[in-house]
Amino acid sequence: MQRAIWVLWPSFIVAAVAEMAFFALFDPGELTLFGQPLEVSRTAVYSIGFFLFWAFAAASSALSLYLGRDSSRR
Predict the structure, then answer these.
(1) Which of 16, 28, 39, 71 could form a disulfide with 45 if both were Cys (CB 3.0 to 4.6 A apart)?
(2) Contacts 24+ apart (CB under 8 A), 29-34
């Protein structure tokens, strides 16, 4: 459980900052996917964006935790 917190909490903070920075520059109503406008609400775009940022940050944190473990635990 402690390792999950080590991964999820920092990645949550990073996702929140990434969300603010990304949507400060880009309007969710003007985003396109393969040249087609997104057919979802602004709230859905914000939510999907946050969870994608969180997933990428969690993967990065988990990889750092995995690579940083000592050799006696392998």
Answers:
(1) 28
(2) none
Contacts of 42 (CB under 8 A, 6+ apart): 28, 29
Tokens 């690579």 found at: 67
What's the pTM? 0.82
How do residues 14-48 score in pLDDT, each as one tens digit?
Answer: 999 999 999 999 998 888 889 898 889 999 999 99
Ordered DSSP codes for 16-71: HHHHHHHHHHS-GGG-EETTEE--S-HHHHHHHHHHHHHHHHHHHHHHHHHHTS-G
Residues paired with 33 in a beta bridge? 36
DSSP state of 2: H
